[in-house]
């Protein structure tokens, strides 16, 4: 039930602990080394597609997540909670926050240099996130097992060092390019 990020450093937080047995890498599953090539693949993919509900500039009702960096295998991104993102009055909807975690964990998976889709996503909500908040998300890979990549992440409110509002863990499955449907 517990694991550590592949190579702890100042930019890589201590494991937040959201993972269940289904989102914890099996014993011996290698944690990947950060890959500059993978980052290039991910950024090229992001540059070529504007329709993503998470980060696309053409998705008017989407979150407009801004990818802000990749360092030492950790993907960082952020978005601003708008009025249309509300669930309970004045607070960000949990599904919106799950979308942001999906986006960040997905980005950290694509950083490995292959294409992945979400198989399982687990979220722990630790604090309410008011409308108008800037939400800072980061994610990293904890292990690889065949086509399965294990990811964890966290979202902080107000800044990269703000209080943690969400922690997440997931399993993403590698797929071929043919998995995706060309835009109509
Ligand atoms: C544009 C640039 C963006 C770049 C940045 C990217 C950001 C994107 C973020 C958004 C990502 C998304 O929302 S993706 C959209 C939401 N997700 C989806 O639509 C996925 C829908 N599901 C599927 O298409 C399918 O079920 C697949 C592809 C996941 C698996 O089907 P498959 O290919 O037939 O493979 P299958 O044999 O079933 O499984 C392969 C291995 O994965 C395991 N596995 C399968 N499902 C799961 C699961 N839910 N939880 C755990 N493990 C699982 C199996 O046990 C097996 O392990 P073993 O036997 O090998 O050990």
From TrEMBL:
<feature type="region of interest" description="Disordered">
    <location>
        <begin position="1"/>
        <end position="36"/>
    </location>
</feature>
<dbReference type="GO" id="GO:0016020">
    <property type="term" value="C:membrane"/>
</dbReference>
<dbReference type="Pfam" id="PF03061">
    <property type="entry name" value="4HBT"/>
</dbReference>
<feature type="compositionally biased region" description="Pro residues">
    <location>
        <begin position="24"/>
        <end position="33"/>
    </location>
</feature>
<dbReference type="GO" id="GO:0005737">
    <property type="term" value="C:cytoplasm"/>
</dbReference>
<dbReference type="GO" id="GO:0006631">
    <property type="term" value="P:fatty acid metabolic process"/>
</dbReference>
<keyword id="KW-0276">Fatty acid metabolism</keyword>
<dbReference type="InterPro" id="IPR006683">
    <property type="entry name" value="Thioestr_dom"/>
</dbReference>
<keyword id="KW-0966">Cell projection</keyword>
<feature type="compositionally biased region" description="Low complexity">
    <location>
        <begin position="9"/>
        <end position="23"/>
    </location>
</feature>
<keyword id="KW-0963">Cytoplasm</keyword>
<feature type="domain" description="Thioesterase">
    <location>
        <begin position="90"/>
        <end position="158"/>
    </location>
</feature>
<keyword id="KW-0443">Lipid metabolism</keyword>
<keyword id="KW-0053">Apoptosis</keyword>
<dbReference type="InterPro" id="IPR052365">
    <property type="entry name" value="THEM4/THEM5_acyl-CoA_thioest"/>
</dbReference>
<dbReference type="GO" id="GO:0016787">
    <property type="term" value="F:hydrolase activity"/>
</dbReference>
<keyword id="KW-0809">Transit peptide</keyword>
<keyword id="KW-0472">Membrane</keyword>
<protein>
    <recommendedName>
        <fullName>Acyl-coenzyme A thioesterase THEM4</fullName>
        <ecNumber>3.1.2.2</ecNumber>
    </recommendedName>
</protein>
<comment type="similarity">
    <text>Belongs to the THEM4/THEM5 thioesterase family.</text>
</comment>
<keyword id="KW-0378">Hydrolase</keyword>
<keyword id="KW-1003">Cell membrane</keyword>
<dbReference type="InterPro" id="IPR029069">
    <property type="entry name" value="HotDog_dom_sf"/>
</dbReference>
């Amino acid at each position: 039930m517990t694991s550590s990020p592949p190579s702890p450093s100042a930019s890589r937080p201590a494991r937040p602990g959201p993972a269940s047995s289904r989102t914890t890498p099996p014993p011996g599953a290698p944690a990947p080394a950060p890959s500059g090539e993978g980052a290039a693949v991910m950024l090229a993919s992001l540059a070529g597609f504007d329709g993503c509900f998470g980060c696309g500039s053409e998705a008017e009702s989407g979150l407009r997540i801004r990818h802000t960096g990749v360092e030492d295998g950790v993907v960082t991104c952020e978005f601003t909670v708008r009025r249309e993102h509300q669930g309970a009055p004045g607070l960000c909807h949990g599904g919106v926050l799950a979308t942001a975690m999906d986006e960040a964990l997905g980005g950290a998976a694509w950083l490995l240099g292959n294409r992945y889709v979400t198989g399982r996503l687990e979220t722990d909500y630790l604090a309410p996130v008011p409308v108008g908040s800037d939400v800072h998300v980061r994610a990293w890979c904890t292990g690889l097992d065949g086509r399965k990549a294990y990811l964890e992440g966290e979202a902080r409110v107000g800044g990269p060092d703000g209080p943690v509002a969400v922690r997440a863990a997931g399993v993403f499955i590698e797929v071929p390019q043919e998995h995706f449907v060309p835009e109509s």
